[in-house]
Design brief:
By secondary structure, the protein is mostly beta strands. The protein has a domain of 81 residues: Thrombin, subunit H, CATH 2.40.10. The chain is built from three helices and 30 strands. Keywords: Signal.
Length: 362
């Protein structure tokens, strides 16, 4: 694949996954009673294009499809929700949950809130009203709503507020490189909240923007954006491991941010996992999604090359195929019990059985 085709291919992908998990209390007697969901259509399987996975506090699973709505699994049955049930759009990009157990479903056209019985579309604040400054409140939720906005939507419990990013130092260089492109470089591919509650935003072509509650700062490196074949990958995955080190897009380096630092001026870049094969200098994997299991191993999902596990010493490869067809992956997710799940572009959902990934609901 030449450089232009590779660039267009990677920039056409949209990944999206923002995940918040919560632990159930130890005293089951005080847990709120789960109400049976009456709406939706019962189906036998989930869609083949699952781009987002989430398990709620009641242990139900939510699977978001590319453009065919939501599939809800309660451990026994699968229900299908679409715009017919009240979703704002069938193009699902992520799930979140608030302290009251409401599920927020991010789509290409807006955000739907589900209270257990009905869907409500979150209102967007009037853009002509006095602007909302950037703030960082623990209970706020953050959404992309598509991948072309110059900014991020913050939900304060009442309204969604579109907050625009400051100008990136890489903006002019991007437009010199792609003068006639229709690509919007500030478009968001991912949102990540680290352990301190700071927000990280991965853009299509300008690297990472981080918000610490006071300052918005940018960080860009060519090796984080450009694949070995020359394609512009965008910033699709950001993750803080158990040691507090950050991984961005690929395994070549990891980043140690010093206390009270801004991302672009005060961090230590360390060697990451390196090459897959030092002898042949095979390229390090670019991943669309990453998580950490309960033992501290890193798991990285790539689009075409399956899953890579890093146990602190070596990379272990898990090819994912259906019959003889390569499964194209979009997300990897750890559920409340530590079980790993995969969402794919062409083969539905896979679940890790302790040894390999097997198809869910064959």
């Amino acid at each position: 694949m030449n450089k232009i085709k590779t660039t267009l291919r990677y920039l056409s992908l949209i990944s999206f996954f923002a995940t918040f998990t919560s632990c159930n209390g130890q005293n089951k007697a005080i847990q709120p009673e789960e109400k049976k969901i009456e709406i939706g259509v019962t189906v036998a399987q989930v869609d083949q294009t699952i781009w987002a996975i989430y398990q709620d506090k009641q242990s139900n699973y939510w699977f978001g499809s590319k453009e065919n709505g939501v599939f809800y699994y309660d451990g026994q049955h699968v229900k299908h929700f679409t715009t017919k049930e009240g979703l704002v759009s069938n193009a699902i990009r992520g799930f979140q949950e608030d302290s009251e157990g409401h599920i927020y479903i991010e789509t290409e056209r807006g955000v739907s809130q589900f209270d257990g019985q009905t869907f409500k579309t979150l209102p967007i604040a009037n853009p002509d009203s006095p602007s909302n400054d950037w703030v960082l409140e623990p209970a706020d939720l953050w959404f992309r709503i598509g991948s072309t906005n110059n900014g991020v939507y913050r939900f304060d419990g009442t309204f969604l507020h579109l907050l625009k990013f400051p100008k990136s130092p890489e903006e002019e260089a991007f437009y010199r490189k792609y003068p006639n492109t229709g690509i919007r470089p500030y478009g968001l591919y991912t949102i990540y909240k680290d352990r301190k509650g700071l927000m990280w935003f991965g853009t299509a072509s300008l690297g990472v923007c981080r918000y610490d509650g006071k300052t918005l700062s940018w960080h860009y490196e060519e090796q984080l954006q450009t694949t070995p074949n020359g394609g512009d990958f965008g910033t699709r995955a950001i993750f803080e491991d158990k040691e507090g080190m950050f991984w961005i897009n690929n395994t070549r380096f990891r980043y140690n941010l010093k206390p009270n630092s801004t991302i672009n001026t005060d961090f230590q870049k360390e060697d990451g996992i390196g090459y897959l094969d030092e002898k042949n200098k095979k390229a390090f994997p670019f991943f669309l999604s990453i998580t950490e299991d309960n033992e501290g191993n890193l798991w990285m999902a790539t689009y075409e090359e399956g899953v890579w596990k890093y146990d602190g010493k070596e990379l272990i490869h898990y090819p994912i195929q259906e019959d003889k067809t390569t499964v194209l992956l979009f997300t990897i997710y750890k559920d409340n019990k530590g079980v790993l799940w995969l969402g794919s572009h062409n083969a539905g959902v896979y679940q890790f059985n302790g040894h390999s990934f097997e198809k869910f609901l064959k």
